[in-house]
Amino acid sequence: MDAAVGLCGRVPSLQPRRFDTAPRSIALAAGEVRLHVRESPRARRLALRIDAAGEAVELVLPRRVSLAAGLAFLESRRDWVAERLARLPDHVPFADGAIVPVFGTPHRIRHVGLRRRGDARSVALVDCEIHVIADPAHLARLVRDHLIGMARIEIARRARTLAARIDRRIVRITLRDTTSRWGSCTASGNLAFSWRLVLAPEAVLDYVVAHEVAHLAEMNHGPQFWRLVETLAPGSMGQRAWLTDNRARLLRYG
């Protein structure tokens, strides 16, 4: 499932690449922004992508397109880049007092003290709050680890239940922090998901899980595939639209 946002243009030249001279940042009115240049053997056009998680710009070059041509394309789209970066939601760190969604419901992070011998857990969800008992220096990591653990349990449960409904077997489920895909499925039965789906409403999580489980039976995006997704997660098109609209927001937490 692709979650990328970008801008494409026609390839203006066919010259050798020189990535060793590529700049590491681009200067905008708001300040310096990191720049990442990469080659894509599948790309047919130059493309710009905004990395919402890291506030960086990615310049994608097709084969046999020079770095100079790519940088000229970037320069001609400078205003587009600045506008997209300005439209990014605010970054919300995992810090005391921050509000973070858990299955779409806002939860306030609260540091409630230092961990003592006998404390059962370092992190717990209590009445729409995320209580953290630990050294404040470890708070962000502990919150992140707890959310990943929740995502692993909930995604695995949902995925295996849906796979059983269509008589398919899941070999392995992996969680990652991807910025371009919410989920993926291999022909061998391995599924991968973004842990950030635990931040989205449950119906959205159900849709992504159904999407990847459906690939166990249909390794394509044809009509039969989408019918199966809708059977497993009714209302899936609405959840797909929600992900598109809220992609950047989910990537800005933590």
What is the fold's blueprint, element by element?
Elements: E1 6-9, E2 25-28, E3 31-40, E4 46-51, E5 56-62, H1 67-76, H2 78-86, E6 99-102, E7 105-113, E8 123-126, E9 129-133, H3 139-165, E10 172-176, E11 183-185, E12 190-194, H4 202-214, H5 223-232, H6 236-251
Parallel strand pairs: 3-5, 7-9, 10-12
Antiparallel strand pairs: 1-4, 2-3, 4-5, 6-7, 8-9, 11-12
Helix pairs in contact: 3-4, 4-5, 4-6
What does it look like?
This protein has 254 residues and is an alpha/beta fold. The chain has 2 domains: 6-86, no CATH class; 138-251, Zincin-like (2-Layer Sandwich), CATH 3.30.2010. It contains 6 helices and 12 strands. Strand 11 and strand 12 form a beta hairpin. It is globular. The model is unreliable at 11-17 (pLDDT under 50).
Task: Summarize the entry for a quick read.
This protein has helices at residues 67-76, 78-86, 139-165, 202-214, 223-232, 236-251, and strands at 6-9, 25-28, 31-40, 46-51, 56-62, 99-102, 105-113, 123-126, 129-133, 172-176, 183-185, 190-194. It is an alpha/beta fold and 254 residues long.
Distance between the termini: 22 Å
Low-confidence stretches: 11-17
CATH superfamily of the largest domain: Metalloproteases ("zincins"), catalytic domain
Instruction: Please describe the biggest sheet, giving its number of strands, its sense, and whether it closes into a barrel.
Output: 5 strands, mixed
The CATH topology of the largest domain turns out to be Zincin-like
* Tally of individual helices: 6
Whole-number mean pLDDT: 90
- Gyration radius from CA atoms, angstroms: 21 Å
